[in-house]
Queue: 3 jobs
Job 1
Amino acid sequence: MRFSKSFLICLIFSFILLFVDIGDSSHKKTIGIILPADIPYYEEIHGYVLKKLEEDIASGTIDFIIQKPYPDPIAFSNAARKLIALNVDIILTYGTEATLAVIREKPSQPVLYVAGYSPVLERYRSENITGVEFKTPISSITRYLNTLKEIKTLGVVYNPVEADSVYQLNETMKCCPYFKIRVIKIPVKRTSDLKNLLNETNVDALMFTTSNIANIALSDTQLNIKLPVATLLPRKEAKPIISLYPSPRKQAEKAASIIQKVLKGKKVSEIPRDLSADMELIFNLAEAYKMNLRISVDLLTEATEVIYK
Amino acid sequence: MMKMVFAFGIFFSLVIIPDRCLSQDYSKNEILIGLIPEENIFRQMDRYKPLGEYLTKKLKIKTRFTILSRYGDIIDRFMARNLDGAFFGALTAVLAIEKLGVEPIVRIQNIDGTSTAESYIIVRKESGIRDVKGMKGKTIAFVDRATATGFVFAIAYLKEHGIANPLNYFKEYYFTGSHDSALLSVLDGRADIGVAKSTIVKERIRRDPFIENEISIIARSVPLPDVTLCLSKRLDRRLKEEIKEILLTMDKEPEGITVLQKLGASKFITASKEDFVPVYNLLKKADINIRSYSYR
């Protein structure tokens, strides 16, 4: 009886070992993801990335650990440390600030990023980091905004602690004199800052940089902005008249392709960062009508999407 | 006497009657001239409308312009709409000379004294694209297959640099339909590379000088004949001569000068088939046979 009990335990243990072996955990890779909370644009890219990696997910070759920190430097840093401590195989970040937070922690794992702002990230080149970047042509969005109405003052909503946002503010200040536009800085460190600052500022139009905080602040439906708004990240519920941002689908396609290459064993140092131009230009004709603004037909023909209602 | 009457009759039938038959067009009450959509069509129509009114006044025949919807349609539309002539670009002029037998009459001389245009391959300055190698796997915006400055030059340039199948060299390519739209595609970051005509790019920079800080021209073609008025072979030759004479002399009178200024031109100069030799050379470099070229 004692023999048969021991035999049974051995049999179960062998079966468990066998099962574990079938699962082949040595080939399974874990991707640690930092996805900033409350930014629908990054969520959309992430959705497309998962779709592109469907086969890898189904075959069980990859696993994810997702961190969705509130987009502030401390929360990003904590999320980065957590993923490093969990010893994930790859760290995937969305947006510039999350990427910078991981880079500052100097991880040994490869870092892949999506929707990173090129002029900021080019200062952080390393053999262990690659990804998909973009650079918004600030002059283009200013040019389009200026065709809607004569703009003398442009309020630029940015966050002084987000590097991409500060870079975009400086770019706007460089190009605006050519269009005879004066830039008014609207620094938003907390989402609650925006409403007060807008009440104190008198401008002809607003431009929202890619700042995470500014993007979340813009989603506040109580803002009731009566000015033409241009955004460098989409925020549909805020109904900006013009948006210019990199195509989420194309960012995702490129990111998934890079992830697959790394999963197949290619060195990150051999994968060049991708800075292709895949911008989407959206005009909201319905909102323009509400403000009595006319978007000319030749401008509309340039759009990748026109919102009519 | 009978012989003389007979001889006169034959002379009349051979010379006078055919000429009268030919001059039936001269009695027409409207001249319809096509325009290729090289820039924003509303701006283009604003530029050409005064010229139509000027020709109407001088010829005493209503002269109207019609913008063809796209470059690739130009030969079909020329026939279908029974056009009397068209202001063609370098390649569409060659296509029309070869396929329709049109005759180049006059060419626009720009304000800066040039009557030619180059093709530019443009990129954003920070793109890092400097040469053919850098173009690999990128997105390129062409104007139309039926343009020398907005398509054929780029193909010839890539072939000259050893790229056997230029369109497969890019991740994506598309046609914008106009030169300024190709430029805007690059400025907005919707395309990495754009191919557009120098005159349109310069005009944009004149109106918006910041563009000069944003773009780099990484390749340019030899000068190609710019917008050329070609007239139908059906049109009465005396009417052709009259149109030519009006256009060639309009810079000598105040009213004509005003019309030219609105057109963005200093004057018209005589055009001929020989002007298009550089276009034929470009086609050869691009391995394009104009007679069988699928330009639509």
Job 2
Amino acid sequence: MNTPPLSPDQEREWELQERALRQERGEAVAAAPPGYRLLARALREPLESAPPADFAALLARRIERAALPDMRWERRATTVLVAMLLLLAALGLAWQGQDWLRQLLELMPSLPRLFNGWALLLVVGLGVAYWPAPLRERLHGAEWPRF
Amino acid sequence: MNPDRVLVDAVLARRAGAFERLVAEHQGLCWHIIQRLVRHPEDTRELCQETFLRVHQYLHQYRYESALKSWIGRVAYAVALRHLEKRQVPLVEVEDEEHDPLLQESDGFDLESAWADAQLRERLQAAIEALAPLPRMLLTLYHLDELSIPEIVQVSGLPAGTIKSHLFRSRLRLRELLQTRFGVSA
């Protein structure tokens, strides 16, 4: 949505518009064209509609009513539990993984060719590339909310 | 300490009255952005509510990289924009590039008597209302809310040059209307 810069003539007109704006704000500037001053004055007029007087109070009450319990503790507990689960899984794999793998390979003789190391590397790569966006945001932060 | 940080910390800590204070401080700007884009009063109220619900939901993501009012303004702008997109309302008009004459300064124009003319003011407000949503909002943020162009960049995400161009052309067009349609020698 980029637009070309104003021409020198347009820049001069822009300066007149800005001078009118500043004059209407009470700043001491050279006199601006009255048409632009009239316009600047009209543009400073309050809008016809405004938030209702109790808008903030009603909204705050609505938020309080709908407020969910603070889930931060639960999120931390979930993270710890998932980490423990992964650790136990890793230990289990290290302890009995050779047996499981051997039994699995016996069941499916074609698997060794598939899992020759490179396929596993590909799976890990894809996992890292497409890991969940919320996790990425948690690590890198996000300035603007997503909608 | 940065007042934005004090307020945000208070809201995140769920202190009594903190969120109400946040809404009260920023509802004016939010209302202006949404009202100028969508115009419909009931939609404005609903979208303003939606904005603050989202602000409450995502406030923990605010990183103080911009003023809180710009961040909230950005949320309001995004909410209103999505509403317009759903209704397929164009943000800007297709402009006739040839139709952009620069105006001459005039003599004999009495600003105060023109301002006292209620009918003229009404017609001028109607002409402002008749602008496309985006320039109408930009004019209000710049003139009424006194946001600078860099602040409007943070709210809208538009390039500064685009904002300046919209402001320039809208004001030129309105002044031209004063002369041609309203018969004011301005």
Job 3
Amino acid sequence: MRIANQLLLPLVGISTVAAAIGLYLGLFISPADYQQGDTVRIIYIHVPAAWLALFGYVGLGVCGLFYIVWRHPLADVAARAIAPVGAVFSFLTLVTGALWGKPMWGAWWVWDARLTSMLILFFFYLGFIALANGFDRAERGSRPAALLALVGMINVPIVKFSVDWWNTLHQPASLLRIGGPTIDPSMLTPLVLMLVAAHAYFAIIVIIRMRALLAERRIAALMLRPKSVQFRSIA
Amino acid sequence: MEPVIDMGGFGGYIWTSYGFALLCLGWLSYSSWQKEKLAAKLLADLQETHLDNDS
């Protein structure tokens, strides 16, 4: 955590600068798409949110694995810190996707493979949060929540490759694909900047939430301390 | 200024997306910061109480 704390300030700087430049280029400088017009500008918020929703879930799954196999307490803390952030990003992906879909597809929502798998990802996040916090003692929820995080990992490649495996309304991958990105540099530059900003922001919030959770655990330990002192004095 | 707001007739969708993102991320930042601040304060108070009791 010491390294994470030292990284906090540089991450704030990176996130702020990258977001400022990325938003300026994306909203005011980059051209409108020849087919989608100005609605393409939603990409600069929709794609980073979707990446972070997926990236966050991979982090959740890795933490779940570390917790189940090695019972590492920091893995549980990290997973609990990641889950609400990932849930917000997946919700943001769904809402911005709907706001992009309505003018382009004529519908706010379609039961398309990409959209549906992203909705399932959002439910996995909610399930994790509910399981992790659904017990009177926090640590009792850690194992079932970690198991759910691992089970949900099945959905990650489904989200990523849904546009290749099924015939969907959603456009295919244009950034992470064999043969390189298909986006013009005038749009790619603000998109990459927004991706950098979003990743840095994600890390900042996760570090802050981890610090809060660690402090809460120390509080819980301190609250138990007088009893143990009393027990020792009786013994 | 008007073309920026209008965004080729899609301004409502685009600015709502960015506004919603700002709202979500702003809430997430504030709630996380508050959570940490409260926990840190409670921990400091408790540690002080324990130090007083120990001495």
